[in-house]
Design a protein that fits this description.
By secondary structure, the protein is an alpha/beta fold. It has a seven-stranded mixed sheet, sandwiched between helices. The mean pLDDT is 94. Bound molecules: S-adenosylmethionine (SAM). S-adenosylmethionine binds next to loops.
């Protein structure tokens, strides 16, 4: 049964949102993330008709609902940390959005390191968006992610050491990235590419453009003004997206 509009608006307003999600009836949640900007950079297939999709680290579920909107036959949203409080958030946003949208997205509570075909099966398309840099063991995690991917893996991540040609990964033992202790690693683009090939993807394409020095300088200044980074570190950081095919 549809949630009455006034009730939906009040319940949405009472939650802290990561994603801005259209709940219908003119209600859009007020997420802190620039999700639409990131979506535009992912180059997702316009149609996912008939495809099964796993969204790892789904949080409020924006990208799961987007896969459903694009016609996926089955979508599973997987997460753990942000669904259990402790500074990250809760699952209440995902559940409210799913109800409000009349969505059939399934959910599974699982850590990336526990993903396996035995636990979850395999999926035509897997989203791994905004998660890699939170992991202490990025290559081991990508092995788990590859094990549940049948065809296409879409990865979006913070990248660091931009401009260095050799594969390299910055390590954040403290709060070096965005003053956030849950960030552990910043691979550069060649490192993400090489890790994806090393875990079994035969074709890897970086779908975000290479940025100019002016763009990177301006981006770094914004980060410095937000008070979360030094100019020297921020200039080497960016975000990038990849399509990897088996
Ligand atoms: C920055 S948010 C990204 C959310 C969403 N995927 C997006 O791109 O907007 C990082 C997400 O990764 C999840 N996450 C972090 N470490 C994880 C792990 N080891 N296993 C599963 N999820 C993890 C968090 O719970 C959180 O939902």
């Amino acid at each position: 049964m549809a949630i009455p509009r006034s009730d939906l608006a009040a319940r949405a307003a009472a939650l802290r949102w990561y994603h801005s999600i259209d709940l219908g009836d003119g209600i859009v949640t007020t997420g802190v993330d620039d999700t639409l900007v990131r979506l535009a950079q992912l180059d997702l297939p316009a149609s996912l008709a008939g495809r099964t999709v796993l969204d790892i680290g789904a949080w409020d579920g924006f990208f799961s609902f987007e896969a459903e909107r694009r016609g996926a036959s089955r979508v599973v949203a997987a997460d753990h940390y942000s669904w259990h409080g402790g500074g990250w958030g809760t699952k209440a946003g995902f559940e409210l959005a799913r109800d409000a949208r009349g969505s059939r997205v399934e959910d599974v509570d699982i850590d990336v390191m526990d993903l396996s075909p035995e636990r979850l099966g395999t999926f035509d398309v897997v989203f791994f968006l905004g998660v890699l840099y939170h992991l202490r063991h990025p290559l081991a995690a990508l092995e788990r992610v590859a094990s549940v991917t049948r065809d296409l893996l879409v990865v979006e991540t913070v990248v660091d050491m931009v401009g260095i040609a050799r594969p390299a990964i910055a390590f954040y033992p403290e709060r070096e990235l965005n003053d956030d202790p849950t960030n552990w690693c910043g691979p550069n683009v060649p490192a993400v590419d090489a890790m994806l090939r090393s875990v079994g993807f035969s074709r890897v394409r970086t779908v975000t453009p290479q940025r100019s020095a002016i763009y990177r300088g301006a981006r770094a200044l914004v980060h410095v003004m937000r008070g979360k980074n030094t100019l020297r570190l921020a200039y080497r950081q960016d975000r990038a997206a990849f399509h990897a095919h088996k």
